[in-house]
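Cross-posted from the bioinformatics board.
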Amino acid sequence: MILLLLSLTGNDILAKVDSIMNAPRDRESVGIMVLVDRNGKKKERKIRMWQRGEKKLIRFLAPDEVKGVGFLSLSDERMYLFMPAFKKVRRIASHAKKESFMNSDFSYEDIGSSDYKKKWDGKIISETDSTWVLELTPKPGADVSYSKLIMEVKKSNYLVKRVEFYGKKGDKEKEMTMKKEKKVGNYWTFEELVMENLKTGHKTIMKLEDVKFDQGLSDNIFTERNLKRYR
Amino acid sequence: MERFAEWVKRRGRPAVAVVFILTLVFGYFVPKVGVNSDLISFLPQNDPVVKVYKEIGEKFGGNTLVLVIIESDSIFSHHVLSTIKKLEDAYKEIEGVGFTQSLVSMIDIKKIEDGIEVGNLIEGEIPEDKKELERLKEYVMGREMYRGAIVSEDGRYTAIMIKVLEGYDRMKVGEEIIKTTEKLKGDLRTYYGGLPAVMHFVNKMITGDIKKLMPITIVLVMIVLFLGFHTGAGVFLPLLCVLIATVWSVGLMSITGVDLSLVSNIMPVLLISIGSAYGIHVINRFYEEKDIVKTIKTVGKPVIMAGATTLAGFLSFLTADMRQIREFGLFSGLGVLFALIFSIIIIPTLLGAMHIRKKKEVKHTVAKRFMDSLSLFVVRREKVIIAVAFTLAIASIAGIPRITRAVNLTEYFRPESEVRKTNEIVFHKFGGSNPIVVDVKGDIRSPETLIYMFYLEKKLRGLPHAVRSRSIASMLAEVNYNLNGIYAVPETRDKVDNLWFFLEGQDILSMMVDDEEKEATIEVAVGTDNTGEIRKVVAEAEKILRTPPRDIAWEMLEEDAKRCGIEVKKEMLQVEPPPLTGREVKKYLESSEAMIELPPYLKNKVIKLSLRRDFEGIKKLLSGYPPEDVEYLIEDIEVRLEDEERENRIDAMYANITGGRKLSFEDEKRIKGDLYYFTVKLPSISSPQVIQTGFPRIQVRLDRKLLKNQIQSLVIALFLVFLMILWQLRSLQGSLFSLIPIVFTILLNFGLMAYLKIPLDNATMMIASLAIGMGIDYTIHFTHRFREEHLRGKSLKESLKRTLETTGVAIMVNAISVTMGFLALLGGSLIPLVRFGMLVSFTMLVSSLSALMLLPALLLYYKPSYIERR
């Protein structure tokens, strides 16, 4: 075992991180997002999320202004929005991927499924008894908006403990920290993440509750029809 | 005065040494003096209107935008677009830069059949294909959102918008943006707009002017001094005094943390020109008396009087509303005081020390001969002089109502200056950068408030010169149009919430609504910078805000129809729409959002039942499906039926209104949006609290203040000077006589302004008071000498001759040196200061000539008794 650990390269670790993250076939959870601005003012949102592979269905639960709004994403370019007050589903053909996710400090890129291995080259720069620290540089031709990531990975479960995002100029722009983690069934998952935007002073806290894995979510979940069942 | 003279004789040298040491101390602080180019800080900061303006500017980030404008005959070319991309990428790397927006990065939202398409105006790589570029051009120029906003109407200019983040030094970021642009722009022409960039240029101007104008002034004054005295001491001693005085007052500014501003940057020029006068009179007398004590005894009193009155002129600005003018008044006044004190201490002391007691008899041949003929002329033509002066005064008074006022800060800059050029472009190509802003306070998310804002925006858009407008209300209407095909703010809160969700997180939102959604702005760009026109627009906007809407839906329709040249009548809205066909229900049942996928025969049955509104029948028919889904289905069908009916009604009303005429895409969209409000129940609209702000309002406010300040400081200066003369002469008659030349000068100044169309502005407003303070000096010197000679037993005519030969020469040298000094301002970068220099020069000539001609003419004619009294 020890020998095995010693022989791991940065890229091996990235592959492992991806595989751990992408291991569950599907996932359902309640997410609570707290948006904190530079003056410490907070805004809270609550969503229920279903996810299977690329497919994602998000339903807003709170606050009242957004309650019932639904969001279905079948692929990067096929998304649907449900507006309960109009009782209408509208297709959103979006090409703007780097936009922030629901006004948070996460971009769609940040919260997408884990594919570090595909886009980055990892190099171990230091390690302790419990973690590895990797430096990630973009693979040639990879479509990423950061010049470098510094990532801390837990040795025990391959969860990402901390990521620093560096801009094109080499300055640290964002920092993501995992505050809490837990094991649900066979899988380890984060329970609380904080993403801090160092440029704007904004912060987003993301908490996961009621996480369920591998329920065998069917295709019927990811339909416009289901999007409308908001009550 | 005698005791003071003795003191100078005994203690002059140590006093001078102390002054020199202190000068070194102040001199140390001079380079540290701050420069404040912030145009907004120019405004009276405690004024409520200004306060609101500043608050709104900070809250909605209006003061933090930088505009980089690119000029090219082919904006839509690979070369230009790639440069824009390169620039924008580079801006993003600058610390403190928030969001940026340009033709290349602009997010474009398009309405498509079953939804919307969100993308960038330019996807991926910048196209090289000519045809593709041509298509892009056509698309951008065809949309009201882009044309005139990001690309100018003529397609020759495009703007890159850059927002400076909170907490960063705006000016530094602005400078960095300019530097980056200059490095990367290649052969493209660029202009910079927005406060952070403009401040950079103004700053350069302030310091640049001082560096450029001060040496010119010094040289000009030196020339005059040399011509007047023909001696080295005569040239250098007065100059030394004013230079020391300037160092002291600028040093004091630095120590007390007061910045040099757009006004006070003329202080050095001003002090050198004005301050040298005291030295001139002291030296002139010293050459006559050749004794320190005698010189101070005789000339001390009039010189101090002259200084005190000038000081009064400056101090009258302490009542001004504009901080910069108050500061200018204070520190220039101090400078004058210093120059005065140094002139009577340093000059005699140094002259005494330099042993230039015996100076070759001054051969003021030219000057003397001129003065002799002048006195002869006055003696012979006293009545003519009085008559001419009287006529000029009357003509000037007649012109006063014609004086215009200019408060537009951009008029401060020369037409060829960077700031002015950018402003012209922003103005003519992008509809102005200083919009009228209406601040709305209330529950912004409520349809009541939003529909009222939508109404206000439409009304304001109808103002003369209004070119563009924006608000959260019209943005929501645009989203509603893209998602639901209706250009209107929805009538229920739920619907507003759904649309708002779509805008959330967009940077543009924070420029229109505050975080708490309790305050929002409506901006209307005004395409004129004429103060008179702006006054009208502001007043009309105010009227719109103060008039509560009678029938909000009708008024919106009326306004939009008027814009298309259509007069709407109420009966046009009386329509009998065609019966429903169920087309929207059909479309729904066939779409993938239908709650139940029905076989064709059931679809037709459902359509038939829904047209009869037999929803129980539908329930029965679909009893085999999950009841919950049937509920959803029926709700959806109800909405589709309403949609069809509404669409039919709107189409019918629209046909009545246009009478078959084809309107433009945007006009049709707007009018159909207005008609929507005749198909739904509107919430009761309560007008929230609205305040007009924005720069136009400020301009009107400044305009009024300007006049008030002018009159106020004029009266104060005149009164103070009157008191001083009264104290000196102890004769009411004498004081009134002494005021005549200066009142005449001021009248002529206003006359000149009226006939040469020089407007009253922040700088020219100061002239009248300064002219009183400075111009009265000539009268004081003249009167002093004239009485002295007369009391010695000379006749009036002889006294006049003697006065003009002696003090008269000093007065002339003084006036010409001040005039020359101020003429240096003509080379300045700021227009009001150029005008200021011109008018001060003019008033100095007029006041000196009236002291030398008009006053003696009056004295000879009326022979007032105060001349005789001791």
